[in-house]
Structure formats: structure tokens, C-alpha cells
# Entry
Amino acid sequence: MLTRDEWKALPQWACWTLIDGRKVPMNPATGRAAKSNDPSTWTTAAEAWAAKKARRWGGLNFALTIDSGIVAIDLDDCFEERDGRRQLKKYAAQIVHMLDTYTELSPSGNGLHLFTLGTIPSNIKIPGFEMYAARHFMSVTGRYLESASPDIESRGEILTALHAFCSIRRAPLPPRRPVELTGNYSRYSAAALARATATVSHAANGARNNLLFQETAALVELVNAGIVDRAAVEQAMIAAGVTSGLEEVEARRTVKSAFSTTTKVRQIVIRPRYSAIEDRV
# Structure
């Protein structure tokens, strides 16, 4: 875990200003352009904030690096009017719930930026969804969601699952059939899905098909129990198989086989979760 104070102390901050409608990264020390691969153009959050106010720039940027271990996720178009209130769309709410890490509004107020600790194989940019671990600036507003953790949490397995799911997508999120994690079992289901996709994604050559079948079959037991949606398992496990090196046709065939041969229903008991209320000051 990384607290917000620890995060702000990292010397990886710059600013941005609007030029011809684009957010251009700016060096707080010189007033010239900053670069996402040049640490000499970054500073601390406090110094970047002072420069932002003095120069009347638009806001702050955080430079993502492999060494810091921080992964940022950018979700677009996250809100809708529902029941007379502005609420998160279903796909965005599920991602926020699964990661439960520091989450804030984007500068536009219509998107979300999530920051978490972990590693991913590569950056991803598809319509509506972006995920970065290095060589990229992510704008920071400080307008964080009260419903998510106030700190940057470690979410390695879930990041791996999310990366695997999104890495083969060719269409914007949300998918045609959104991932459904039901009722009080949603956190349990997310963790099970994350563990399974992480295991398959990192499978060694020669073991990929067997692992994909075994891990999918275990998840099918949850599907049979009505705890997780079939589409969620199919999409995530096919993506994990492709990430491991299998051809998509082969991954689909293996996942289909696991569904057709697994009839067992997993029985689970969810115990109540308790969490202390912490002082955020």
C-alpha cells in the first residue's frame, strides 16, 4: 500500500496546460515541456502544485515508471443519469469495486482515473479504456471517490486479470455482455477470477492448455452455483489463454470443453467483512 502523502512525495510530478485544445505536459521548474521519459523534467507534488498556481496552468500530471510500481487506469464516459441521479455506469462501478484503490474524477469530470500497485506486461489503449505502467503521464485532480480506498492499494492479481481481459479486445468497453459478479459474492468471485486468469496468463509452454482447462473448470463450478456470470468467465479465460501464448481459436475450444464437461456446483460460505474506520486527515 502507498498512502497519498507517500505518493505526493515521489519526485515524479509535472503539470499540464491546454494548448490548442490538448493537455501539454509542462516542466514545473523551467516552464517548458515535460517528458514522460525524462525524470529531470519532474518534481514533487508540492512543487508542481506551486508552479501550477503561479503559472495558472490547468493541473498536475504524474509520471508512471516501472520502478515506482504504480499502474494507472483511465476510464472514459463513466457516468449516466439513473433514478434521477448521476451514477457510475455498471462496467465502471464493477472495476472500481474490484480494484478498491485510490480513484478520482478525470479533469473532464466524466471519466475516472484509478491508481494501484502492481505490474502489467504492457500498456493498453483501446476506446474507452487505457492502462499504463510506464512512459506516460496521468493527470491528477485530487477529486477522489469516497466509495473507494483513500490509498493506492496493491492489486497484482486483479490487474493481471483485467489486463488479460482487455488485451485482446477490439471494441470499446463495456462489452456487449458486461461482467456480472452477483450479490454478496462479488468480491469472492472477483478474487477467484483474478487468481485463475493470473495462473493461466503466466503458464509455461506445454502446460497452457491443461492449466486453462483446469482453472476454467474450477470457475465453472461457481457459474453452476449462480455466483458468477458465464460470460465473465468465458471472456476472461479466453483472454488469459491468448495472453499465455495460445491461439484464440485454441483457447476458445479449451474453455468450451471445460464448460461442457463440468457439472459440479461449488458450495461456499461468505463470512462478513469488517473494516476499521480510519482517519483520512
In short: The helical segments are 4-9, 45-55, 90-99, 156-167, 186-201, 208-224, 230-244, 248-261. The CA atoms of residues 223 and 230 lie 6 Å apart. The longest strand covers residues 13-19. The two ends are 17 Å apart (CA to CA).
